[in-house]
Amino acid sequence: MDPNSEKPTERPKVLVVDDDFDILAMLGRLLRRMDFEVHEAADGEEALRLVRSIRPRLVILDVMMPKMSGWEVCRAIREDPSIADTRVLMLTGIGERLNEMTSPLYGADDFIDKPFDVDDFKARVLALIGER
């Protein structure tokens, strides 16, 4: 059995990573209302540790964070065969053009810029969750 697979009755796990606590709290509430099991981290090192321990289906990563950037976390996920199939959505305010150019280089599955449309965010999350 795939160690990342979840029992059919379990809610999909999502890890939200952002050093802005207001955004972290808002995304956590939104994802819980979407019926996900939500975990949160405020820096890149904590995020990578949690990805390895809880095996979320999706990681939503800010780029600019303390200790490790979101790009570094994404690259570490892709380079670790035990978690490489984890879906990654980059969520950042660095600018759409820069996000569009850099996120794929680090192995992100998708990206969305802050500020974002809630319906667009939900659609992207659901699309990534369904792409397992």
Task: List the main descriptive attributes of the protein structure presented here.
5 helices; 132 residues; globular; Rossmann fold; alpha/beta
What's a quick, concise take on this entry?
It is built from five helices and five strands; from the N terminus they run βαβαβαβαβα.
Q: Report the end-to-end length measured between terminal Cα atoms.
A: 14 Å
What does the main sheet amount to?
A: 5 strands, parallel
**How confident is the prediction overall: mean pLDDT?**
86
Q: What share of residues are in beta strands?
A: 15-25%
CATH topology: Rossmann fold
SSE topology sketch:
Elements lengths: L12 E5 L3 H13 L3 E5 L2 H11 L3 E4 L8 H10 L7 E6 L3 H7 L7 E4 L4 H12 L3
Parallel strand pairs: 1-2, 1-3, 3-4, 4-5
Structural description of this entry:
By secondary structure, the protein is an alpha/beta fold. It has a single domain, classed as 3-Layer(aba) Sandwich (Rossmann fold), CATH 3.40.50.2300. It has five helices and five strands. Strands 2-1-3-4-5 form a five-stranded parallel sheet, sandwiched between helices. α3 links the parallel β3 (58-61) and β4.
